[in-house]
Amino acid sequence: MAGLMDIGKSGLQSYREALSVTGQNIANINTDGYKRREASLSEVTGSAGGINSLPSQVGLGVRVEEIRRSFDEFLLNKARNSTSYAASANSYVEAISQLEDIILPGDANIGSAIGRFMETLQEVAVNPSDLAPRIVAMKSGETLSDMFHQTANLIEELQAGIFTQSSQAMTEINLLSKSLANVNRNIASSAGKAQNALLDNRDAIIDKISEYAEVTVTLENTGSSTLRLGGSGNGPNLVAGEKAYTLSAATNIDDMQFFLAEGADVRRTSQVSNGKLRGLADAYKSASDAMRSINQLAYQFINDINSIHIQGLDLEGQAGIKMFHGIAYDAVSSVSNLGNGSAIVEVLDVNLIGNDPIKFTYDGEQSIWRATDQYGVNIVSGKHQISLPGMSIEFSGDPVGGDEMVLKPAEGAAKNITFALIRPEQVAAASGFLVSPDINNKSDAKIDISVSQDNDEISGLPNIQDVISNTHSSANSSQFIRDGSIAIIPANTDHIDLISMIQQSSIQFSIADAAVMSISDLSITIDDGINVSKTYTFDLSDYADTINNSSLSDSDKFYWTDASQIAQLINIGALKATNTVDVDSDGNPAKFTLDELGGYVSGNNGNLNISLNTNEITSGSIVIDNYPDASGIIKPRIDSASDIQIFTREGRHIAGSAFDDISDLITEDNGFFADAEYRNDYLNLSGDSGYMGVNVSTQNDFASDLISVTNTDTGHIITFDRISDIDAKDRTPDGLRSSAGIFSYDLSIDGIDITLDESNVDGDMPEAIAQAALNQIRLTGPIPSLTGVSSLITSETFVLTNAQKSTLDADGQLTVTYAGVDYYLTYEDSTYSIAGGPNNQLSLSFDDGTQTISYTYPELPDDGSSLVLSFENQEYILTMNNGNIDVTGGENGRLNISYDSTYTLNISANNGSISASEITIVDDSVVSDNSTMALNFGLISSSSSPTTSFYYQDSSYNPTTISGVYTAPNFDLSVDENTLILTKNDDSLDDEIIISSSVESKVGSRVQITDLPDEEFIIFLTGSSDGNGARARNISAVYDQHPADMILPKRDISIEITNLESGKIEFIDSLTGTSMATRYLDDEGMATGLGYDLKVTGVLADDDVFHVTNTNDGIHDNRNLLNLIDLQNSTSGKGGFQKVFSGLIAEIGADIQASQLNAEAANTLKDASLEAEAMYTGVNLDTEASKLIEYQQAYQASARILQTAREIFDTLLQTI
Amino acid sequence: MQVSTKLFNQQSISRFSELTGDIQSIQSRIASGKNVLKASDDAVAMINISAAKEKLTQIQRYSVNIDRASSRLSLAEVALSEIQSVVTRIYELSIQAKNDTYNEDDRKSIKAEISALRDLAVDLANSKDTSGNSIFSGYRTKVLPFEENSDGEIEYKGDQGNHSLKVSETVTMPTSINGVSAFMRIETDDGYTSLFSILDNLIEEVELVGASDESLENLNNTLNHLSINTTKIGASLNKAETQKNGLGQRELLITKTLSGIEDADITALITEMQSLLLSKEAAQQSFMMISKQNLFDFLR
Predict the structure, then answer these.
(1) CA A652, CA A650: separation in Å to the nearest integer?
(2) Interface of A with B in 88-107 (CB under 8 A)
(3) Would you call B296 and A1138 a contact, using CB atoms and an 8 Å cutoff?
(4) ipTM score of the complex?
(5) pTM score, whole prediction
(6) Residues of chain B with C-beta less than 8 angstroms from the C-beta of A435
(7) Is the backbone of residue A920 left (phi > 0), alpha (psi -120 to 50) or beta?
(8) Which residue of chain A is at minimal alpha-carbon distance from B142?
(9) Tell me, which fold does domain B53-256 have in CATH?
(10) What percent of chain A stands above pLDDT 90?
(11) How do the domains of chain B map onto residue ranges?
């Protein structure tokens, strides 16, 4: 019966343990992570039978097989995921609800502040000349700014708060991760099966982590766990075995980014998919979005208000300033950039800049920055610079592919907005102009005018600085393909000088870089249009041959490395050309420099360009060793240059040549306004009769203007001119264009023919040309000279006293003083010698016989005394100055005047005198005492005077007179700056002086306009109708501009009804009376012109005039303010701020609504999942209580078994 | 189904706080009398409310503007009609002066009276409004529009601006007329002239020959001109009155709409509140009962 006792004992023990498990369950009812335990009981079977016994079928009782922990991985994971999801939804709702409270805190919000501001402006409009409402308006403007600041600051604070919360959550996660790693370590060390408590611990930690961030859990058989971030199962490890990774966060441009770190290796992760952290990150992003919207609202508000306010005038008549400040433009680099590229934004026109963000991404492969809009659509790209509407962005630094920068034009607008007006007077309530009907108008009609809101029609033509470089140059000129409009002269241009040139014949060679070193011959065939053409060959082989010369060491070999070397050697004449026809005096082929052929060459790398100034290149080739010959591309000479026409965009013809019918040219395609009308009333006129007072100079046959002859009362004036940079040699450094120089001035005066070329002229200034022409002409006249009749040398003596002589003889030396001058005499070796004496002495001697000291010296006129001579009708004044003669008056350097060794005055002209003018002494009646002076100067003596002698330059004949040898013409010449002045010697002689001249120039026509008004002009080329159709559209220009943003005073205009029937009106500039534009009123009496929209009310009469004046004293004018107030109602994409604001509020509201619903759903799901999990693993008191009863009963019953066993035993004992 | 006691407790507790939150929200609506307190309550309603409020402010402003414009315009009307009576009196005097029985002395006294009346007319043309702004000087309200120059002629110093105020989204209303329209463009046979030069001519001739026919005709034209302008102003004032009535109607309509969207239905809210309170109480009591009831009570 021992068996029954044992069975009962096993029951007692097992149920006591089961009761303990239930007790443990009840005790841990509130323990986090505690999973219900269950004692699992099993029978202890009897021993197996032996040979002598049967196996017992009864068994040996009961035992607790295991204490099972209720655990279901699937349910648990589901519960965790839903917890994460609910946590993200809840934390998002919580944070974003604060956002709503910030933006719409009640009645005082941005929207109502804008409304209030507008309302105060209304009050200003009621009485604009009163300061009180202006002060109120300023205050409300400041309040509005404050409201923006406050909202922006609060959003920033909210974001900072969200970030702090995230950081705290992250600290928590990192601690938990470490704990989990520890648990994993403990599990690993408890080899085999881990304790339930450890597992509870593990699950509790993972549950906690799930609240912060969604994780995917993988469990090993041992119970050790691996956590990956995110629900996808592919996220990075957060905890792997005993290793924990550190999670951190940073704020980027407008969102929050997460990073996982293992040691120093930090990687960005996008796998924070759910959980409180996700909710916070989403809320951060939403706050950024709200901030951006607020910024955009501020930006739009600032821009729209300012754009109207600056159109008005303030109470003191000053132009309105910006009412609000606060827009900054910065491109912000992303925190994840690897390179260090940066950008500078230059704002060109604020009004053109949109308020949407633009992202720049660096493309490492192509080394360019790409700009994309907020939808990721590529807008534009560039290496160092990108142009976007209204701004230009310059990039620098060393970016790495994938680097990003974001430019948010509206960024910070809400934080930076400030009310910019300081004084109440600065509210620009008044409109800048006033329309008044002329008092004599026949009708009572009125015209309402407003500044046109449509942007000026863009001409579609390139700006002049984009197509013509601002310099006069023949090689850098711009060549246009066709006639018509070529460019716009922008409104901010002050003056412009346009030159239209011919096209020289040229040839362009392009040789592969590798072949340049082997160039051996260059030949061009030149046709001068008269003789047969000749082929000139430049032998370059001397250089090339060295390459093939094996006897030369490499360093001695000469290589062409660049065509610029060839160009330079040809240009300086070091390389000469020969042809097959011409020979020199020795019978060898004649050699020519390119200059002599009228050519010029430009070279760079493999490019070589040769041009000729007059003749035509018909063919050319370059011979290259081991390469095929290179033949060039030839441009023919085009002798006729295009005519330049200048128009206003309204069709007013300012400069050029008049057209009969031009209507089909005045088109929008040509850059004119749609309503432009052709007028040539102001064509080529200047000043009062010119267009708006411009000064126009048009030269259509320019070359003939380079020498011009004008008649004067006394003769003629010949003026020389030259645009040095145009007619000079010129080339571009790239070797693609060259322009040969032209210098040829032919002049014939009364049979004296001269030709000036570069060799005759010192420099190329017009002054030098005039001087050279004069010098050239003088070569035909004899050179006059005049020699004085007396020498100015005087001699003087004095005698030593005997006493002095004795002293000299005795002492061997003596110093005597005569007339204040010391003389030093010595006596040695029976020889007397003398030294000292006056400074200017010519000779000094001592006669010991007569004891006489003699000396000679020049007796020059006193310093400052002057003599006046006459030569070629001009007076020359000779003045003594320290023994020298200064010459003043007359032509500088014309006379050479000096004393010769005998102190005789020599005067000669430095060149011939075509009038064979004598050099004469001006009469005493003209200059008093002049003859005395002539005597002093030694020019005359008391008895005689000199006569002019002539040296005839051509025959070297040297007569004293000119008669029979030279007949002087009846005029004289002198030069003044760039003019040659021809003076008739005798007015009574009516001889006709015949002057003819010609000049070569590249310039065909020239247009110069100064005092240009603030208006765009069109440059238009014409002239292909000359028969052959070829015109050189070759334009060079120089222009001056004032800053584009300089504010010029607006012009007053008058609007005149010129034809009532057709509704034709003229816009007249009031100051100059110039008709600037013509329009026709439409059926509703409306028209638009010169930036004004106008509308007629009432019935007009013929010749009615309306004056649009720019007033500044209309203090009760509120029209600009009315426009400003109109911004309340959104028109043409501007204004409507309150609508924008309530849209923003609604957006956030709807977001909160949606996320609240979302959170509710998430919470329900979470509850359900937790319930499902708890059903399996949770502790229910009722269940546990019933188990308690159950086990207690079983325990009592087991006790009963023991008792029964004892009773049985007792029974047995008693029976014994 | 087995429910974890811990979970049951947690869920019950969170349900109570939810109910409290709902009750609080209804309470604040009842307290403010507004149905929509936050955009998240009803985003669409919020947009409508702010649009209606903005419109309401504008309409109220238009009404104010009409009042301001009307009061200034009325001043102009009064001044013009007074000038009209002055000119009428001058006209009568001129007719008298034509009478052959009047001798030079009589005409002298008539001249004196006309001169005084002319000065009165100038004063009236220089009338100012309550803020001290000249009524007939266009935008140059701080100058006296009509001043005598060294030749004794009256010159206009104002400009041709017409100050006006917005009285609806599309309509503006002038607050006066400028001096040129009022007095400087009276049609005569020789073109346009001013009221004052007509009067000055009259004064010059009245002493010698009495009023000429031309002067009389000019005076007549003047009266016409003044009466046309007075009528125009009157018409403007009438129009303003009509406009104001219209604005009043709109204001009423918008206020009604606004109240419809915005104002809380207190009865409905209180009913809802009561039902929520009831649910809360029931939930709490049942929780008490449930949590009290467990098997341990029966374990004795």
Answers:
(1) 6
(2) 97, 100-101, 104
(3) no
(4) 0.86
(5) 0.68
(6) 160
(7) beta
(8) A1115
(9) f41 fragment of flagellin, N-terminal domain (1.20.1330)
(10) 28
(11) 2-35+264-299, 53-256
